[in-house]
Amino acid sequence: MKFLKFALPAVLAFTLFSCDITDSDDDTSIETPSSYEFTRNGESTVSFSGQTTRIRMAMELNGAMKDFDNSTEELLLQMYRNQSESGGDVDPYSESELNSSSKSIKSKVAASADYFSTNATGSAEIKTQFEEWISGQITEVFPNENQLAEQGVPGQIADGTSTRYINAQGFEYDQLVAKGLNGALMADQMLNNYLSPAVLDAGTNREDNDNEVLDGDNNYTTMEHKWDEAYGYLYGNSANPANPTPNVGAADDFLNKYLGRLEGDDDFAGTAQEIFDAFALGRAAIVEGDYELRDQQAENLREKISMMIGVRAVFYLQSGKTALDQENPDFGGAFHDLSEGYGFIYSLQFTRMPNTDEPYFTKAEVDGFLAQLTEGDGLWDIAPETLDQMANDIAAKFDFTVEEAAN
Fold first, then answer.
1. What is the pLDDT of residues 17-75, one digit of tens each?
2. CA 45, CA 62: separation in Å to the nearest integer?
3. What is the helix (H) or strand (E) element at residue 331, kind and residue range?
4. How far apart are alpha carbons 14 and 198 in whole angstroms?
5. Percent of all residues in the chain with a pLDDT value above 90, rounded to a whole number
6. 29: which strand partners?
């Protein structure tokens, strides 16, 4: 029997358990680790530095898209591509480690094995869509920084004490990019790539994992590392990635942030622990070679991460509807919420129904929702009833109600 290895303080390890595996009549159970710490020969086997790098790159891109004084189209595209072809001689990022990295945001957008390995055209279209949003921020919004926005005219619009900057249809390009990356980068890589048997079991990965054949000079098997990379897209920028749940929501601007928002809603409280437990138990199952249990946890993660995207899409549709559906509509607040909602709706095509090869919503279905938001003068024309219908259509695919998501 191979023993599960993960690090806990010595006192806890002694008082709680000496081994996480219990055998009874050939029935093996694997307890869920309380922290995401796994070791081999006294050294950690956990690694997801690439995910941390891309999260930080995306966070810097988010900030730069609102920097009217310093950002240029060339700089923003270079931050997205991180390739010499992007143009510009200035290092795009504030962190030297990011500037010296060979990784990029673009290379992992719409790049999962399950959804895009045989769909190069679809992948290219999605990658290009983000570039168009980035360019639109510079060519449409930046020149009208001091222009008051109105129907068909880009510029600034008040949202309480905040100022938002929108295109002619009322959308904030920076929100489309930021919220769209939740799906096109984070969720797609997590749910449809690193948690996929096509990636976890590629080549001789199962045999190598069973025999603890390590990945080159690294202290992990390839399968262990692939699972960790999925984990990294949610927790890779956490202050304490081994025990991230107590501070969930504070690590980044992407899925971690919105898992924190979900956890703060009484209707969904406990989801953060359930997601962490699924990651930790799945990793423990890999150590023990229990691939059925591993795959069960992957399906749990697909369901819960997808649900989180659905909840946020409905939340922002309802928030936007509330801001518009009053005697004196709050256009600034509504447009901000609906821009965020647009990004989460866009992200629905990267979700994954458990035990299937399909997203909760196809690209065609997502495009249909987005067409309703963008037809005519876009958000200036949108009817509250349309937003209600979209919210109901989205919630109907998941195990939550519009009322629960809207809280």
1. 333 433 333 446 899 999 999 999 999 999 999 999 999 999 999 999 999 999 999 99
2. 32
3. helix 331-347
4. 38
5. 90
6. 22
Structure pTM?
Answer: 0.92
What's the CA gap between 237 and 240, in Å, rounded? 8
Amino acid at 76: L
Q: Find the Cα–Cα–Cα–Cα dihedral 119, 122, 128, 134, rounded to 10°.
A: -120
Q: b/e string for 64-77 if b means 16 or more Cβ within 10 A?
A: bbeeeeebebebbb
Task: Label residue 83 by pLDDT band (50, 70, 90).
Answer: confident
Q: Are 255 and 235 in contact (CB under 8 A)?
A: no
d(CA 334, CA 11): 53
The Cα 189–Cα 166 span in angstroms is 30
247 CB-near residues (< 8 Å, 6+ apart)? 238, 239, 240
Query: Which neighbouring-strand residues pair with 148?
Result: 156
Task: Report how far residue 316's alpha carbon sits from residue 293's, in angstroms, rounded to the nearest whole number.
Answer: 35
403, amino acid identity? E
Predicted confidence at residue 369, as pLDDT, reads: 98
Pairing, β 21-24 against β 27-30? antiparallel
Residues 256-286 have pLDDT tens digits of 999 999 999 999 999 999 999 999 999 999 9
The Cα 273–Cα 137 span in angstroms is 37
| Distances in whole angstroms, Cα of residue 194 to Cα of each of 30, 52, 118, 198, 366 | 22, 15, 17, 9, 24
Distance separating alpha carbons of residues 3 and 30, to the nearest angstrom: 10
CB 398 within 8 A of CB 353: no
CA angle at residue 196 from 194 to 200, to 5 degrees?
70
Contact between residue 73 and residue 61 where contact means Cβ atoms under 8 Å apart? no
Distance separating alpha carbons of residues 23 and 158, to the nearest angstrom: 63
What's the distance, CA 289 to chain centroid? 28
At 311, list the tokens. 């909840």
